[in-house]
């Protein structure tokens, strides 16, 4: 039940995220639906390929496809004056998708008895894969590569689930709230990881 709830939350969050990015880029209606669907299911597809789950498993999630389509349709019906505030609340939607899908991916790998390293990789790919595909298709720099901390929170999800720190439903939902809050704080206060810059040499002449 916890897996299904997190999947539903992540699907809605990322479908909305992809749809709004598509509208920002002035895609047509079909493009909006395509980018929304790809964002919602891209991370799961990449995860399945790497941890040995048949890709065909995605086509068995009919309910989640319907939820994604309804979410995209709802966004398209929103008044434009609300959508203009995407930059303010859109990152929050992405944060919800990141934490929900990261935990879901970690649970998936744990159920398949994969080692901790694979659980963490599954969490990162499921949590950030859809967003990466979304940004690349929209010709944007992926959030995971930006200066604000992003993928680290997915790693923490994978570690918490893989080490058994979060296993019961209450613990998983608490982890979801904590990771979402950390992601919101990281872009609100511009938390950054250390950066190593290469010096540029000046030409003489």
TrEMBL record:
Q: Which InterPro entries does the entry mention?
A: Gly_transporter
* One Gene Ontology term, aspect cellular component: plasma membrane
Q: What is one Pfam family matched by this protein?
A: Gly_transporter
Which residues, by range, are in coiled-coil regions? none
Q: What is its main location?
A: membrane
TM ranges are 6-23, 30-51, 63-80, 92-110, 116-137, 149-166, 172-189
Q: Which UniProt keywords apply?
A: Cell membrane, Membrane, Transmembrane, Transmembrane helix
Query: Which residue numbers delimit the Glycine transporter domain?
Result: 5-78, 92-161
Q: How is this protein situated with respect to the membrane?
A: Multi-pass membrane protein
- Taxonomic superkingdom: Bacteria
PANTHER family from the xrefs?
INNER MEMBRANE PROTEIN, UPF0126 INNER MEMBRANE PROTEIN YADS-RELATED
What's the protein here called? Membrane protein
**Source organism:** Sporosarcina globispora (Bacillus globisporus)
């Amino acid at each position: 039940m916890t897996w299904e709830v997190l999947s539903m939350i992540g699907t809605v969050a990322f479908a909305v995220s992809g749809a709004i990015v598509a509208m920002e880029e002035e895609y047509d209606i079909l493009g909006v639906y395509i980018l929304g669907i790809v964002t919602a299911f891209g991370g799961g597809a990449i995860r399945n390929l790497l941890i040995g789950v048949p890709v065909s498993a995605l086509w068995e999630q009919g309910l989640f496809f319907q939820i994604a389509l309804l979410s995209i349709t709802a966004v398209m019906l929103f008044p434009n004056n609300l959508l203009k505030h995407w930059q303010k609340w859109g990152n929050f939607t992405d944060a919800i998708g990141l934490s929900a899908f990261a935990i879901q991916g970690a649970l998936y790998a744990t159920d398949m008895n994969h080692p901790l390293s694979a659980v963490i990789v599954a969490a990162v790919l499921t949590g950030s894969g859809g967003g990466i595909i979304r940004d690349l298709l929209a010709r944007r720099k992926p959030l995971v590569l930006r200066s604000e901390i992003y993928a680290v929170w997915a790693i923490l999800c994978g570690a918490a689930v893989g080490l058994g720190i979060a296993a019961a439903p209450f613990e998983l939902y608490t982890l979801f709230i904590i990771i979402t809050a950390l992601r919101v704080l990281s872009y609100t206060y511009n938390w950054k990881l250390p950066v190593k810059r290469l010096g540029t040499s000046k030409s003489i002449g």
